[in-house]
Sequence to fold (151 residues):
Amino acid sequence: MSEKNDGANRDATKRSARERLLVERERQKTRDKRRRTLVVAAAVVGVLGLATVVGVIAANTGKDGSAKAGPVVAPSGATGKDALAIQAGKPEAKSSLTVWEDFRCPSCKFFEDNYRDVIHDLEAKGLLKVDYHLVTLIDRRMGGSGSLKAA
Fold:
């Protein structure tokens, strides 16, 4: 009879182990479902956030793709045809230098980095006057509006 009891105990133990496995599988399914729901919700929130950013950018962009801006106003102290040149140095200086610069241009940066001190020294001594013309060469060639905004 003890063999029968041992067999019944083994069957009960097996049944109990199966039931525990089933319960654990259900818990795991619930966790997986919750995780998937969170991932999908996060993706939806991310897409909505990106759409909002794109919408704001589109709303602030003009028909030609450039940023909306008010009327173009020449900087104070600008002179010349259409007030396009910004003068530096003494107007009565014997020598003059005309500089055309684009703030996005690497060559213009090289020129400024290497000759800025010399030009400023000559201006301070009254030997040189400089007319700076701000241009948008890079914007026209490569697109964008960085040169215009910087100018």
